[in-house]
Specification:
There is one protein chain. With about 700 residues, the chain is α/β, with parallel strands linked by helices. Helices cover about 30% and strands about 15% of the residues. Strand 16, helix 21 and strand 17 form a beta-alpha-beta unit. The longest helix is centred in the middle third of the chain and has 16 residues. The termini are far apart. It comes from Eudyptes chrysocome (Western rockhopper penguin). This is F-box/LRR-repeat protein 18. One of its GO terms (biological process) is SCF-dependent proteasomal ubiquitin-dependent protein catabolic process. One of its GO terms (cellular component) is SCF ubiquitin ligase complex.
Length: about 700
C-alpha cells in the first residue's frame, strides 16, 4: 500500500497544472467556452482566470445565438459586468428571451455590430435601444405585425443613418427601418410574410404604398433578398426593387434574389437589369429563373472577380454556362461557391431537344472544373446528371479534381458506376440464384457490417469511393434523389405520395453509404431517396469513422413500406458523440424504446425532428429520452398518431422540462392533419429553416453573407 501511495504522489507531482500554461495558450482554450460561462462562472474560480476571462479577445465579440441555456437574468448580469467591453453582440434566434431582455443591451455603449434576428423587439424598445448606440454600423432585426416607424425617435434615426449593414426579416408588409438607413452599403432582406393572417384575412403588399419614406440605395454594394413562398412576398419585394430600377448604385457588386416558384419579370425589373448590364461589374449574382430563362441577360452582364453564382432551377444549358458565364474557359479562380441546383440542362451543350434524363456532356463539366479550380461549395442536386457509358470521364472522376471543396450536393443518380447502369437493380426477385435443385429461401441479403469486409466487395473500385477518398477535407455532403420531395413542404398540406426514384439510382445503396465514411472531417450529412439500402450497414461505418459529425438528415432510404435500416441506425447513433441535429423522414418509422435508448448515446444532441407518414411513437420512451438527454431543446415529431396522443405528449414534455430548458420548443402533431400549416407558422424561424423543413443547403447563400 505504501508503494502505491508513493507512486501516486510521484505521478501527481509530475503532472501538469493547467495554470502553468502561458496566457496565450489559456486564452485560446478559453475561447471555446461560452461567454456567459466565462464571465458568470469561470472567472470566479481564481485570480488568474478572473483576469484572463475579461481579456478583450474574449469580450470583444459575444455570441449568444446558440447558447440555449442563457436566460434573461444571465443576459442582465453579463451586460452589467462587461457591457462596455462588447463591440459585437449576436443574439440571433434567442426566441425564448422576453422582449424586456433587449433593454439591457443599452449598457453596450460601444456596440458596432448587433444581431437581434429572431428576437422579440417592439418599435418603442428598438427606438430606446438604438438611441444609445451611437457607434452602431451593423444591425439585424425582425419586423413584425404592429411595427410602426413613426415611433422611432430622432436619436434612433440618427443612429440608423450611420448604419452601413442591415439585415431585416419581414413578417408583415413594411419598409421597416430601411428608409432611415441613408448610408446603407449592404442590405439583406428575408421575406416571410404569409398570404393570410391568423384570422384568415388575405394580406396585400400594397399596404406599404401609404408610407412616405423610400429606401436610400445610392451607396449600396450588396443587395440580397430571399423570399418564402407566397404572392405577398413577391409584391413587397417589387416595391423595394422599384427604387433600384430608377437609379442603379454605381458601387453595386452583389445582386442576389432567391425566389421559389414563378416570379415573373416586369418592366421595372427589366429596366433594372438593363441598367446593371450597362453600369456595374458584379462579383456575386443570383436571379429568379424567369428572369434568366430565354433571355440574353447573362451575355451582357459584366463580372469583376466573381466569388458566387447561383442559377438554381434555371433552364440554362451547359453551352450558355460556358460561353456566357465562364466566357469560354476564362480563368475563374476567384469563384468559391456555385449553385446549379435544379439546373437540369447545365451539363449539356443545349436544352432545346434534350430530355432531362439524357447523358451529360463531360467536357462541359471538365471545362467548369478547370476554370473554377478553387471551388469550395458546389451544388448539383435536383437534376439527372447521368454520365455516359462510352464517352468522356465520369462526373465523380472530374469532381475529384476539386481539392478545395468543403461542401458538395449531388443527385443520387450521378454517383452510380456506369457499368452498373446496364445491370438490373437489386430486388428480391433477382437475388435468387438461377439454378435448379433444392429450394432457395427468398429474402434480404445479409451485408457485412465491417468496413474491411465491404472494401473487398467492389466498393474501393467504384467512382464514388474514389471521389470520397479524394475529398478528404469535405465538411458537408448531400446526396439527394433527383425526384425526392419532402412530405412536409412550406405553407402547404403534407404530400401524401412521392415520385419514384430515377432508374439510374436503383443500384445506389449500402456500399455507397459506406464510402462516405472516408470523410474524416465530415460535419453535416444528408441522404435522401437511396432506393437500394438493404440493411443500412454503411451508416455504422460513418458513425465509427466520422467522429466530427454534428448534423445528420436521412430521408426515404430503402423500401418505403418498412424501415430496413433501423438496426444499423441504432448501432450508428451509439458512436455519434458530437451529433447535435438529427432529422429523420421515413414512412412507417417506429419511434420506440429501442430507438430512443440508442439515441440517448448522443450526449450532445440538441434538436430532433422526425417526419413519418403512418409512423408511430411510444410516449413513455420519448419522456425517458428527454429526461436522459439534458441538452435537447427542440423536439419536432410529425407522425401518424392521433391528435389526442400528440397533444398529451407535447404538454407532458413542456410541463416536465420547460423550467430547466428555457429554449425548449416542442411540436408533436399528426403529419396529415389539415391544421399542420397553422402549427408550422409558430415554429421559431431558426429551427424551421435549419432542420424542420427539408432543403438543400449547399451554396444556398454566398459564403460569409452575414457574420
Amino acid at each position: 500500500p505504501q508503494e502505491i501511495v508513493s507512486g501516486e504522489s510521484e505521478e501527481e507531482s509530475n503532472g501538469v497544472n493547467l495554470m502553468e500554461f502561458s496566457d496565450e495558450i489559456l486564452l485560446h482554450i478559453l475561447s471555446y467556452v461560452p461567454c456567459t460561462d466565462l464571465v458568470l462562472n469561470v472567472r470566479r474560480t481564481c485570480r488568474k482566470l478572473a483576469t484572463l476571462c475579461l481579456d478583450k479577445s474574449l469580450t470583444h465579440t459575444v455570441l449568444l445565438q446558440k447558447d440555449y441555456k442563457v436566460n434573461k437574468d444571465k443576459v442582465k448580469q453579463l451586460m452589467r459586468d462587461i457591457g462596455k467591453e462588447i463591440y459585437q453582440l449576436n443574439m440571433a434566434g434567442c426566441y425564448w428571451l422576453p422582449s424586456s431582455t433587449i433593454d439591457h443591451v443599452t449598457r453596450c455603449k460601444n456596440l458596432v455590430k448587433l444581431n437581434l434576428s429572431g428576437c422579440h423587439v417592439t418599435s418603442l424598445r428598438l427606438s430606446k435601444m438604438l438611441s444609445t448606440l451611437q457607434h452602431l454600423r451593423s444591425l439585424a432585426i425582425d419586423v413584425n405585425p404592429g411595427f410602426d416607424a413613426s415611433q422611432l425617435s430622432s436619436e434612433c434615426k440618427a443612429t440608423l443613418s450611420r448604419v452601413l449593414e442591415l439585415k431585416q426579416t419581414l413578417y408583415t408588409p413594411s419598409y421597416g427601418v430601411v428608409p432611415c438607413c441613408t448610408s446603407l452599403e449592404k442590405l439583406l432582406l428575408y421575406f416571410e410574410i404569409l398570404d393570410r393572417s391568423r384570422e384568415g384575412f388575405m394580406l396585400s403588399g400594397q399596404l406599404m404604398v401609404g408610407e412616405s419614406n423610400v429606401p436610400h440605395y445610392q451607396n449600396l454594394r450588396v443587395f440580397y433578398a430571399r423570399l418564402a413562398p407566397g404572392y405577398v412576398n413577391q409584391e413587397v419585394v417589387r416595391l423595394y426593387l422599384a427604387v433600384l430600377s430608377d437609379r442603379t448604385p454605381e458601387n453595386l457588386h452583389a445582386f442576389l434574389i432567391s425566389a421559389p416558384g414563378s416570379f415573373a419579370e416586369t418592366g421595372a425589373t427589366k429596366n433594372l437589369l438593363d441598367s446593371m448590364a450597362r453600369n456595374v461589374r458584379l462579383d456575386a449574382l443570383q436571379l429568379p429563373k424567369a428572369w434568366i430563362n430565354g433571355s440574353g441577360l447573362l451575355q451582357h452582364l459584366k463580372f469583376n472577380n466573381p466569388f458566387y453564382f447561383s442559377f438554381s432551377r434555371c433552364t440554362l444549358s451547359g453551352g450558355h454556362l460556358i460561353q456566357r458565364v465562364i466566357n469560354g474557359g476564362k480563368d475563374l479562380k476567384s469563384l468559391t461557391s456555385l449553385n446549379l441546383s435544379g439546373c437540369v440542362h447545365c451539363l449539356a451543350p443545349e436544352s432545346l431537344f434534350r430530355k432531362a434524363e439524357d447523358d451529360i456532356d463531360s467536357s462541359i463539366l471538365e471545362n467548369l472544373v478547370v476554370s473554377c479550380c478553387n471551388l469550395r461549395h458546389l451544388n448539383l442536386s435536383a437534376a439527372h446528371h447521368h454520365s455516359s457509358e462510352s464517352i468522356g470521364s465520369h462526373l465523380c472522376q472530374l469532381l475529384s479534381r476539386l481539392k478545395h471543396l468543403l461542401s458538395l450536393a449531388l443527385p443520387v443518380c450521378s454517383i452510380t458506376d456506369v457499368a452498373a447502369n446496364v445491370e438490373k437493380p437489386h430486388t428480391a426477385s433477382n437475388l435468387v440464384p438461377q439454378t435448379f435443385g433444392r429450394k432457395v429461401r427468398i429474402g434480404i441479403q445479409t451485408y457485412p457490417r465491417n468496413l474491411a469486409d465491404q472494401a473487398n466487395q467492389k466498393i474501393e473500385s467504384s467512382v464514388f469511393w474514389s471521389l470520397m477518398g479524394s475529398l478528404r477535407f469535405l465538411e458537408t455532403l448531400e446526396v439527394i434523389g433527383s425526384s425526392f420531395s419532402s412530405a412536409m413542404p412550406r405553407n402547404e398540406p403534407a404530400i401524401r405520395n412521392s415520385l419514384p426514384p430515377c432508374v439510374r439510382a436503383q443500384s445506389v445503396g449500402d456500399s455507397e453509404v459506406a464510402a462516405i465514411s472516408q470523410l474524416t472531417y465530415l460535419q453535416s450529412l444528408t441522404l435522401a431517396q437511396l432506393p437500394n439500402i438493404l440493411t443500412g450497414s454503411g451508416l455504422i461505418n460513418i458513425g465509427l469513422q466520422c467522429q466530427h459529425l454534428r448534423t445528420l438528415s436521412l430521408a426515404n432510404l430503402g423500401m418505403m413500406g418498412k424501415v430496413v435500416y433501423m438496426s444499423a441506425l441504432m448501432d450508428m447513433l451509439k458512436h455519434c458523440k458530437c451529433l447535435r441535429d438529427l432529422r429523420l423522414e421515413q414512412p412507417y418509422f417506429c419511434a420506440g424504446a429501442q430507438f430512443f435508448q440508442a439515441l440517448s448515446h448522443c450526449s450532445s444532441l440538441q434538436r430532433l425532428c422526425i417526419v413519418s407518414r403512418s409512423g408511430t411513437l411510444q410516449s413513455d420512451a420519448v419522456m425517458s429520452f428527454m429526461a436522459n438527454c439534458l441538452e435537447v431543446i427542440m423536439c419536432h415529431m410529425f407522425m401518424g398518431e392521433s391528435l389526442t396522443v400528440c397533444k398529451n405528449l407535447q404538454q407532458s414534455i413542456v410541463r416536465s422540462f420547460q423550467a430547466d430548458r428555457p429554449a425548449l420548443n416542442v411540436v408533436i402533431f399528426p403529419l396529415l392533419h389539415e391544421d399542420l400549416t397553422e402549427v408550422i407558422r409558430d415554429v421559431p424561424m431558426r429551427h424551421l429553416d435549419e432542420i424542420t423543413l427539408f432543403k438543400s443547403r449547399v451554396a444556398e447563400e454566398p459564403p460569409n453573407l452575414w457574420w
